[in-house]
Amino acid sequence: MAVKKFMGLTALHGNWEHVIVTAHRGASGCFPENTLLAFHKAMVLGADMLEFDLRVSKDGIPVVLHDQTLNRTSDLDGKPEDFTLEQLRCGNFSYYSFGADAQSGRRLNAPSYVNMPIPTFEDVLKAFHGQVGMNIQVYAPAEALREICRLYKLFNMYDQGYLTLASLTDVEFVRKLDPRVEICFTPPWTKRGSEESLQLCQKLGCRFVQPVVEHSGPECYRLCRELKLRSNAFYSDTDTCNRIILGQGATGIISNRPDVVLDTLRDLGRR
User: Fold this and answer.
1) Where are the domains of the chain?
2) Residue 80 scores a pLDDT above 60
3) Overall average pLDDT of the 168-179 stretch
4) How far apart are CA 243 and CA 240, in angstroms?
5) Residues of 48-76 as b/e, b for ≥16 C-beta within 10 angstroms?
6) Is residue 66 flagged as an active site residue?
7) Tens of pLDDT along 102-123?
Protein backbone atom coordinates (compact mmCIF):
# COMPACT_ATOMS: atom_id res chain seq x y z
CA MET A 1 0.00 0.00 0.00
CA ALA A 2 1.45 3.37 -1.01
CA VAL A 3 1.82 6.00 1.69
CA LYS A 4 -0.26 9.04 0.81
CA LYS A 5 1.30 12.41 0.13
CA PHE A 6 2.10 14.41 3.26
CA MET A 7 -0.05 17.48 3.92
CA GLY A 8 1.23 20.20 6.24
CA LEU A 9 -0.97 22.05 8.71
CA THR A 10 -1.61 24.99 6.40
CA ALA A 11 -2.69 22.65 3.61
CA LEU A 12 -4.93 20.67 5.97
CA HIS A 13 -6.45 23.83 7.41
CA GLY A 14 -7.14 25.27 3.98
CA ASN A 15 -8.76 22.22 2.39
CA TRP A 16 -12.19 22.17 4.01
CA GLU A 17 -13.43 19.32 1.82
CA HIS A 18 -10.71 17.04 3.15
CA VAL A 19 -11.74 15.27 6.37
CA ILE A 20 -8.71 15.15 8.68
CA VAL A 21 -8.13 11.64 10.04
CA THR A 22 -6.11 11.64 13.26
CA ALA A 23 -4.87 8.32 14.64
CA HIS A 24 -5.34 8.47 18.43
CA ARG A 25 -2.15 7.13 20.00
CA GLY A 26 -1.47 5.70 16.56
CA ALA A 27 -3.54 2.82 15.20
CA SER A 28 -4.14 1.94 18.84
CA GLY A 29 -7.28 -0.10 18.24
CA CYS A 30 -5.13 -2.77 16.58
CA PHE A 31 -1.59 -2.23 17.88
CA PRO A 32 -0.01 -1.21 21.21
CA GLU A 33 -0.84 2.43 21.84
CA ASN A 34 1.74 5.21 21.65
CA THR A 35 4.41 2.99 20.08
CA LEU A 36 6.41 3.41 16.89
CA LEU A 37 4.61 0.35 15.52
CA ALA A 38 1.17 1.89 16.06
CA PHE A 39 2.34 5.16 14.50
CA HIS A 40 3.83 3.44 11.45
CA LYS A 41 0.69 1.37 10.86
CA ALA A 42 -1.49 4.50 11.09
CA MET A 43 0.69 6.38 8.63
CA VAL A 44 0.66 3.50 6.13
CA LEU A 45 -3.14 3.26 6.44
CA GLY A 46 -3.36 6.89 5.32
CA ALA A 47 -3.95 8.87 8.52
CA ASP A 48 -3.29 12.59 8.16
CA MET A 49 -2.04 13.00 11.71
CA LEU A 50 -0.68 11.00 14.62
CA GLU A 51 -1.93 11.93 18.07
CA PHE A 52 0.33 11.03 20.97
CA ASP A 53 1.08 12.05 24.54
CA LEU A 54 4.27 13.31 26.14
CA ARG A 55 5.43 12.94 29.72
CA VAL A 56 8.95 13.18 31.08
CA SER A 57 11.49 10.71 32.49
CA LYS A 58 13.51 11.18 35.68
CA ASP A 59 16.42 12.49 33.60
CA GLY A 60 14.25 15.01 31.76
CA ILE A 61 13.66 13.17 28.48
CA PRO A 62 10.21 13.61 26.88
CA VAL A 63 8.72 10.13 26.41
CA VAL A 64 5.50 8.99 24.76
CA LEU A 65 2.98 7.90 27.39
CA HIS A 66 -0.63 8.81 28.09
CA ASP A 67 -1.24 7.76 31.69
CA GLN A 68 0.25 9.26 34.85
CA THR A 69 1.65 5.81 35.62
CA LEU A 70 3.28 3.02 33.64
CA ASN A 71 1.07 0.28 35.10
CA ARG A 72 -1.68 -0.08 32.49
CA THR A 73 0.40 -0.37 29.35
CA SER A 74 3.68 -1.91 30.55
CA ASP A 75 5.33 -4.34 32.97
CA LEU A 76 6.73 -1.43 35.00
CA ASP A 77 5.11 -0.04 38.13
CA GLY A 78 5.12 3.65 39.00
CA LYS A 79 5.37 7.06 37.38
CA PRO A 80 7.60 7.79 34.38
CA GLU A 81 9.33 10.62 36.25
CA ASP A 82 10.59 8.04 38.78
CA PHE A 83 12.54 6.16 36.07
CA THR A 84 15.50 7.20 33.94
CA LEU A 85 15.14 6.72 30.20
CA GLU A 86 17.50 3.74 30.40
CA GLN A 87 15.24 2.14 33.01
CA LEU A 88 12.10 2.90 30.99
CA ARG A 89 13.70 1.28 27.93
CA CYS A 90 13.77 -2.01 29.87
CA GLY A 91 9.97 -2.11 29.97
CA ASN A 92 7.62 -3.78 27.52
CA PHE A 93 4.79 -1.45 26.48
CA SER A 94 2.42 -3.95 24.83
CA TYR A 95 0.35 -4.99 27.84
CA TYR A 96 -2.89 -3.28 26.84
CA SER A 97 -5.45 -3.99 24.14
CA PHE A 98 -8.25 -1.62 23.18
CA GLY A 99 -10.36 -4.46 21.78
CA ALA A 100 -13.28 -3.59 19.50
CA ASP A 101 -13.43 -0.07 20.95
CA ALA A 102 -11.99 1.98 23.80
CA GLN A 103 -14.73 0.86 26.20
CA SER A 104 -13.79 -2.82 25.83
CA GLY A 105 -10.07 -2.31 26.40
CA ARG A 106 -8.25 -4.47 28.92
CA ARG A 107 -4.83 -5.11 30.38
CA LEU A 108 -3.28 -8.32 29.07
CA ASN A 109 -1.74 -11.06 31.21
CA ALA A 110 1.22 -11.22 28.86
CA PRO A 111 2.69 -8.76 26.36
CA SER A 112 1.38 -8.93 22.81
CA TYR A 113 4.93 -8.42 21.46
CA VAL A 114 8.25 -9.78 22.71
CA ASN A 115 9.87 -6.35 22.49
CA MET A 116 7.91 -3.09 22.57
CA PRO A 117 9.93 -0.21 24.05
CA ILE A 118 8.64 3.20 25.03
CA PRO A 119 9.55 5.79 22.38
CA THR A 120 10.95 9.20 23.13
CA PHE A 121 9.64 12.34 21.45
CA GLU A 122 12.90 12.46 19.51
CA ASP A 123 12.39 8.86 18.33
CA VAL A 124 9.01 9.83 16.88
CA LEU A 125 10.40 12.93 15.20
CA LYS A 126 13.28 10.98 13.66
CA ALA A 127 10.97 8.25 12.38
CA PHE A 128 8.06 10.31 11.01
CA HIS A 129 9.14 13.92 10.50
CA GLY A 130 7.99 15.16 7.10
CA GLN A 131 5.79 12.11 6.50
CA VAL A 132 2.69 12.70 8.63
CA GLY A 133 1.21 15.47 10.79
CA MET A 134 1.51 15.32 14.57
CA ASN A 135 -0.96 16.22 17.32
CA ILE A 136 1.33 16.34 20.35
CA GLN A 137 -0.58 16.20 23.65
CA VAL A 138 1.67 17.53 26.40
CA TYR A 139 1.47 16.44 30.04
CA ALA A 140 4.71 17.93 31.32
CA PRO A 141 6.10 20.68 33.57
CA ALA A 142 7.64 23.89 32.26
CA GLU A 143 11.21 22.59 31.99
CA ALA A 144 10.02 19.63 29.93
CA LEU A 145 8.04 22.02 27.74
CA ARG A 146 11.27 23.87 27.10
CA GLU A 147 12.92 20.65 25.89
CA ILE A 148 9.86 19.72 23.82
CA CYS A 149 9.97 23.10 22.08
CA ARG A 150 13.71 22.71 21.49
CA LEU A 151 13.13 19.40 19.69
CA TYR A 152 10.15 20.87 17.82
CA LYS A 153 12.42 23.60 16.50
CA LEU A 154 15.36 21.26 15.86
CA PHE A 155 13.22 19.07 13.59
CA ASN A 156 11.55 22.11 12.00
CA MET A 157 8.07 20.98 12.99
CA TYR A 158 6.56 24.35 12.11
CA ASP A 159 3.50 23.61 9.95
CA GLN A 160 3.97 19.88 10.57
CA GLY A 161 2.66 19.43 14.09
CA TYR A 162 1.02 21.24 16.98
CA LEU A 163 1.27 21.07 20.75
CA THR A 164 -2.05 20.31 22.39
CA LEU A 165 -2.18 22.14 25.72
CA ALA A 166 -4.91 22.21 28.37
CA SER A 167 -3.46 25.05 30.46
CA LEU A 168 -3.46 28.72 29.52
CA THR A 169 -0.30 29.05 31.61
CA ASP A 170 1.38 26.50 29.34
CA VAL A 171 0.07 28.30 26.26
CA GLU A 172 1.58 31.57 27.51
CA PHE A 173 4.88 29.83 28.36
CA VAL A 174 5.21 28.32 24.87
CA ARG A 175 4.17 31.56 23.16
CA LYS A 176 6.97 33.43 24.98
CA LEU A 177 9.47 30.65 24.30
CA ASP A 178 8.72 30.36 20.59
CA PRO A 179 5.71 32.18 19.09
CA ARG A 180 5.96 30.10 15.90
CA VAL A 181 5.03 26.84 17.65
CA GLU A 182 1.51 25.81 16.58
CA ILE A 183 -0.86 25.31 19.50
CA CYS A 184 -4.20 23.58 19.93
CA PHE A 185 -5.79 24.67 23.21
CA THR A 186 -8.16 22.21 24.87
CA PRO A 187 -10.55 23.75 27.43
CA PRO A 188 -12.32 21.49 29.97
CA TRP A 189 -13.91 18.35 28.51
CA THR A 190 -17.56 19.45 28.62
CA LYS A 191 -16.89 23.02 27.44
CA ARG A 192 -14.65 22.53 24.41
CA GLY A 193 -17.51 22.88 21.95
CA SER A 194 -19.03 25.98 23.54
CA GLU A 195 -19.09 29.32 21.77
CA GLU A 196 -17.00 30.91 24.52
CA SER A 197 -14.30 28.23 24.28
CA LEU A 198 -14.15 28.29 20.50
CA GLN A 199 -13.86 32.06 20.44
CA LEU A 200 -11.04 31.83 22.99
CA CYS A 201 -9.23 29.30 20.79
CA GLN A 202 -9.54 31.65 17.82
CA LYS A 203 -8.25 34.56 19.94
CA LEU A 204 -5.25 32.44 20.94
CA GLY A 205 -4.42 31.91 17.28
CA CYS A 206 -5.39 28.25 17.12
CA ARG A 207 -6.33 26.77 13.75
CA PHE A 208 -7.38 23.34 15.02
CA VAL A 209 -9.73 22.43 17.88
CA GLN A 210 -10.89 19.17 19.49
CA PRO A 211 -14.58 19.22 20.44
CA VAL A 212 -15.66 16.17 22.44
CA VAL A 213 -18.29 14.16 20.56
CA GLU A 214 -20.60 13.68 23.56
CA HIS A 215 -20.68 17.42 24.25
CA SER A 216 -20.80 18.82 20.72
CA GLY A 217 -23.16 18.90 17.77
CA PRO A 218 -24.15 20.73 14.59
CA GLU A 219 -24.07 24.19 16.19
CA CYS A 220 -20.52 23.64 17.45
CA TYR A 221 -19.26 22.51 14.05
CA ARG A 222 -21.10 25.35 12.30
CA LEU A 223 -19.43 27.85 14.60
CA CYS A 224 -16.04 26.21 14.00
CA ARG A 225 -16.46 26.85 10.28
CA GLU A 226 -17.54 30.42 10.93
CA LEU A 227 -14.43 30.99 13.06
CA LYS A 228 -12.24 29.13 10.54
CA LEU A 229 -11.31 26.48 13.09
CA ARG A 230 -10.82 22.95 11.80
CA SER A 231 -12.83 20.71 14.14
CA ASN A 232 -11.20 17.36 14.92
CA ALA A 233 -13.96 15.57 16.82
CA PHE A 234 -12.81 13.41 19.73
CA TYR A 235 -13.48 10.57 19.24
CA SER A 236 -15.14 7.87 17.08
CA ASP A 237 -14.23 4.22 16.47
CA THR A 238 -17.29 2.99 14.56
CA ASP A 239 -18.75 3.54 11.12
CA THR A 240 -22.12 4.51 12.62
CA CYS A 241 -20.60 7.20 14.83
CA ASN A 242 -18.34 8.42 12.02
CA ARG A 243 -21.37 9.05 9.82
CA ILE A 244 -23.25 10.88 12.58
CA ILE A 245 -20.31 13.18 13.32
CA LEU A 246 -19.66 13.93 9.66
CA GLY A 247 -23.38 14.56 9.15
CA GLN A 248 -23.27 17.11 11.96
CA GLY A 249 -20.51 18.98 10.15
CA ALA A 250 -17.24 17.93 11.81
CA THR A 251 -14.24 18.42 9.52
CA GLY A 252 -12.03 15.82 11.18
CA ILE A 253 -12.21 12.72 13.37
CA ILE A 254 -9.78 11.50 16.02
CA SER A 255 -9.93 7.72 16.29
CA ASN A 256 -8.28 4.64 17.71
CA ARG A 257 -9.40 3.00 14.46
CA PRO A 258 -8.22 5.22 11.60
CA ASP A 259 -8.83 2.25 9.29
CA VAL A 260 -12.55 2.35 10.11
CA VAL A 261 -12.74 6.13 9.60
CA LEU A 262 -11.00 5.82 6.23
CA ASP A 263 -13.39 3.02 5.20
CA THR A 264 -16.33 5.29 6.08
CA LEU A 265 -14.86 8.13 4.04
CA ARG A 266 -14.24 5.89 1.03
CA ASP A 267 -17.80 4.59 1.20
CA LEU A 268 -19.07 8.18 1.27
CA GLY A 269 -16.87 9.11 -1.68
CA ARG A 270 -14.78 11.46 0.45
CA ARG A 271 -11.44 9.69 -0.04
Assistant:
1) 9-65+124-267
2) yes
3) 98
4) 5
5) bbbbbbbbbbeeebbbbbbbeebebbbeb
6) yes
7) 667 899 999 999 999 999 999 9
Confidence of residue 99 (pLDDT cuts 50, 70, 90): confident
Indicate whether 101 pLDDT > 80.
no
Q: What homologous superfamily does CATH list for 9-65+124-267?
A: Phosphatidylinositol (PI) phosphodiesterase (3.20.20.190)
pTM for the structure as a whole: 0.97
In the set 18, 66, 129, 215, the catalytic residue is 66
The identity of residue 57, as a single letter, is: S
Catalytic residue among 18, 24, 40, 215: 24
